Amino acid sequence: MSGETWLLLGVVILLAWAYSRWKHSFWSSRGVATPPFIPFLGHLHKTAMLRKRYAFDMDAYYRYGGSKFCGLYSFHKPCLLVGDPELLKQMFVKDFDCFSGKKPLKLTKHDKVISDTLVLKTGEEWKKLRAIMSPTFSSGKMKGMFPLVCQKADDLVSFCLKEARTKPVIDMKHNFSRFTLDTIASCAFGLECNSLGDEDSDFSKKVDKFFKLTTASTLRKIFVSIAPRIAGALNMQFSSPTTGFFKELALKTIAARREGSKRGDFLDLLLETQSQGEDDGGSGKRASKSKEVLDDETIVSQCVLFILAGYGTTASALSYAAFLLAKHPDTQQRLRQEIVELIEKHGDVTYQGIMEAKFLDACIMESLRLYPISVYLERMCERNYRIPGTDITIPPGTVVSCPVWTMHRDPKYWPEPEEFRPERFLPENKADIPNLAHMPFGIGPRNCIAQRFALMETKIVLSKLLLASDLRLAPGCENVTVSFGFGSHSPKAVELILQPLKDE
Ligand code: HEM
């Protein structure tokens, strides 16, 4: 290269560096602290991978003011980390109209099934869909689905006890995952897939494929995220091609339901909202609103949503809870006693009984405190917003995140935070927990829509499992290793010894 070319290159690099420095002065010029960052990337190298993210959030929270708020950069885009419960309440709840969106996922036209799921919708479309779907998760509707989930929980317990006869140690993470899968197949797709007993079940194989990340699928996702239009033109999609299998399955079940075979599951409930809209033909307004949102394709997307949002989350929540109960035999016995007393009162594991079980609820809440499935929450600012109590304004497009994992272990809110102490969540102690210091199901109007369903599922399984067996830690498995994936985490393994409590 000639001297002039070198000089030109030097000037270009210098200008780019100066531009990056200027962009990265957004927070310092407003007097907001930021953890150390690097040119161009900002903090992206620390926040893009969940494995690094939770440790980074902790550092930002304790050392750079994040327990109130601090500034971050994703490339050159300013982001805000907010760890103050009062400020979170103001932003995520009271000023929700300014924070109803989430960071958009870049998708192609071939990703319609997942782009129509509630979790990826924004603005008015999200509002309408959420309003129509919310009643399907009411406590009345949960009662209707209770027997379906109990059936799957009974299958799980029988399977585990059968395994316990031949195996010294049971892989409970695997069994909880299969149980969750069977429940989703039953409640969202009307399918009895029995993946617990049948390792070759088509449904479970397809779900495994749906989540499997290979080098090729990762590169495809990265390419779609960078150039969605070109990717679309090349017939590429972000989601796994296996999505087509679930779409066909749900469409087939919808057709069968129209022939009259109802089961009171989630799919029936969604179809009911569609016909409620149609029945309202007289007034016209509601009918067209429902029809517009819940066409068959939109319903199919919400069935797939159950796999996306409900599979790993519930299986991990059950795995962590079972591990903690096995590690704390006295707590386990206290919980078993509560369940036995409720059975004496109600005659069986009933919806009413598990709702009354205060210690059961406390054990699950404490387990989700120590291991919140979402390490952080995010919202996107939709217009200029002045951070309350300051004269700092953040522009539209700023991503605001809440460091859930870190806040769940802050000794300011949780004395001896690393200890498993369900008593913290008993009614007489609940008043000591500040509002929004505990948020395993998120915050405000965009929180987990299926919280009732997820809790019902978890409570039924733990009740039935503890009534049937004593859970003990397998030798060498005294600690749980958290395995961080792309967007979520799960215990690496939960291997337990199951000691049956009744003669079979
Ligand atoms: C123990 C299990 C579960 C946990 C811990 C959990 C947790 C969460 C969290 C933390 C969020 C984000 C909330 C926020 O940003 O404020 C969320 C959102 C969501 N969850 Fe769950 N979840 C669980 C099970 C499920 C299940 C079984 C479904 C089934 C459909 C589900 C569906 C959703 C949906 C649709 C959203 C997005 C809601 C919206 O954007 O309006 N979740 N969940």
From TrEMBL:
Source domain of life: Eukaryota
Record key words, sorted: Endoplasmic reticulum, Heme, Iron, Membrane, Metal-binding, Microsome, Monooxygenase, Oxidoreductase
Cofactor: heme
A Pfam family reported for this protein in Swiss-Prot or TrEMBL: p450
Residues the record lists as binding heme: C448
Molecular function via GO: heme binding; iron ion binding; monooxygenase activity; oxidoreductase activity, acting on paired donors, with incorporation or reduction of molecular oxygen
Gene3D superfamilies in UniProt: Cytochrome P450
Keyword S-adenosyl-L-methionine among record annotations: no
Topology of the protein relative to the lipid bilayer: Peripheral membrane protein
Alphabetized InterPro entries for the sequence: Cyt_P450, Cyt_P450_CS, Cyt_P450_E_grp-I, Cyt_P450_sf, Insect_CytP450_Detox
Cellular location(s): Endoplasmic reticulum membrane; Microsome membrane
Annotated GO CC locations: endoplasmic reticulum membrane
PANTHER family from the UniProt entry: CYP9F3-RELATED, CYTOCHROME P450
Family under the similarity heading: Belongs to the cytochrome P450 family.
The protein's name in its UniProt record: Putative cytochrome P450 3A11-like
Organism encoding this protein: Penaeus vannamei
